[in-house]
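Please predict the structure of the following assembly.
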Amino acid sequence: MAPTPTSTRSWILANYPHGVPTFSTADDNSTFKLVEQALPDLKPNQVLVKVLFLSNDPAQRGWIDPSIPAERLYIKPVELKASMAARGLAEVIASTSDRLQIGTIVQGPVGWNEYGVLGEADCTPRQPLPNGLSLTHYMGAFGIPGLTAYYGLVVVGGAKGGQKVVVSGAAGAVGNMVVQIAKNIVGCSEVIGIAGSDEKCRWVESLGADKCLNYKSPTFEDDLIKATEGFVHVYFDNVGGSILDLMLARMAKNGVVIACGSISGYNSGKPTLLKNYFQLISMRLSIRGFIASDYLSKAQEIGKLFVQALRDGKLKISDEMEQVVATNFEDVPRTWLKLFEGANTGKLITRIVE
Amino acid sequence: MAPTPTSTRSWILANYPHGVPTFSTADDNSTFKLVEQALPDLKPNQVLVKVLFLSNDPAQRGWIDPSIPAERLYIKPVELKASMAARGLAEVIASTSDRLQIGTIVQGPVGWNEYGVLGEADCTPRQPLPNGLSLTHYMGAFGIPGLTAYYGLVVVGGAKGGQKVVVSGAAGAVGNMVVQIAKNIVGCSEVIGIAGSDEKCRWVESLGADKCLNYKSPTFEDDLIKATEGFVHVYFDNVGGSILDLMLARMAKNGVVIACGSISGYNSGKPTLLKNYFQLISMRLSIRGFIASDYLSKAQEIGKLFVQALRDGKLKISDEMEQVVATNFEDVPRTWLKLFEGANTGKLITRIVE
């Protein structure tokens, strides 16, 4: 058995980013810096974990944006010199907790660390999933992204059977679940996805979308107008920016925009620019922001609903829906930055390799 | 008795405006042009009216904006060569209607005409108001603006007793009613107005606002932050633009923005620019557009509620709350344009004089 580590490598927040975050193993001016730091001794009811997988989420960009006051964020922002915050899956390698034995796989706020000390209360032990699915789906369909899709679409947006729905970021971790929930659980009459490549679009259509449009196509704006003839009841917005603006002109009277993310603006620092804002008024639209953590009390219930839907063939969840990138610890920020390149299909997950 | 007129002077929409609309009695290139046109003979159940008062409403700017497709407007847009659309009060001077006798004062879609022919169904005969108030209040507190204030604040926004409310355009026809309804009918704990001059602000405070801030003050942004310590549950937005953006950063968790107007952008053609859009998500805000005409079925009920509130001293409605501008017919567009100069306090009304 390997000796218990007493220190860890960590990617810390060295400087607040301007635009696209940077990283370096040496340069003190980059956003993230690789350091070696001592691990504290375990207090009662704590565990020492080895980080296996990291969840990569667009929202993490907001946690390191100094222009957003801490009181206006839904989580504590990352402090300078602290490890970059991230959720992930880890293996317990030492424990003072009766509940969490060595060898248990837990999900929790592991951060960008190789090893870390977590409180028992912050760790959720994870059991195997049906169909032999990888545990990493606890960071996707069976985790916050799936909960986000359900809470946003059904509870916040009030989507109903027979409605026409558009989803941007449709090939992402949240978006692909929105497509499937809308079409196969809620019974929406038409579900149109928007994604960033023809390949992604075909994949989204394979999940049940009636159509998926590539926003990088030169004919995208015309394609969107054509696909939304008769207008749209619910727009699940994962991207913000110019697609949100276009959609304001394509909503039916009393339509609802579910504001889940605005990734298009996260690194540009550019404001959201709405030429069609007047139509929010004239068409009696509403834009509704939400945060899935408000719905955590229902996570177990929704998890069961998804398992049943999976068994009934109403959800397609497969390991192909994740993009698990084997990553040396030195490259953890590099993998995370793929989020903002529109490069990933499904949930982007970092698997830490040695 | 004067002979019944067979023609009328009218301000027609000669060209769609770019930026601030222009007007001329002669120039064919201006937005509005003064013309003389024949009046049609009365068909059954019609009236010939002499226009006495015109209602001036920011929303009229949207009715002549060619960039907004007709299907995305809540009223039929004004066609080129047609009289500019406007509601107003008029006196019946000839009638083929059993219901509307000569001499009756009616409210209806009179347009920018000296005389006009209206169908009986388009005319609402108007009875005297309590306290000897001028009939023009049927275009203000007892008309669409009052209904807009109530519907927006109470029904769409769901404002409740004990909440903190901010209202922009607080010295306008809708805004001053929002202030009074919030403070004296709904029982909000704190009501903060925003208006365009110190004089307007003092007037808004005299109506019951706890505070009113002048957005033209160099310290406005700091003043607003200070006045909204603890954050705001409901923002009634009559102006859009940069004040909307500022308010997104001042809303409490789950706060509601009631989107009633965006006058700041009507003539500039500038898009709405939101630097704080992310806070819509992080603070779970919603922005809700609405149009008061959806609530017309309740107009009588709300009118009664206002009359009772007036008697109970919970509403201050006086002729001072209107700005009635005696206007030669040649100057009808000039008076309307005052709306966009931030010059009017209370409802801006045109009284046509000869």
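Residues 72 and 346 of chain A are 29 Å apart (CA to CA). The two ends of chain A are 17 Å apart (CA to CA).
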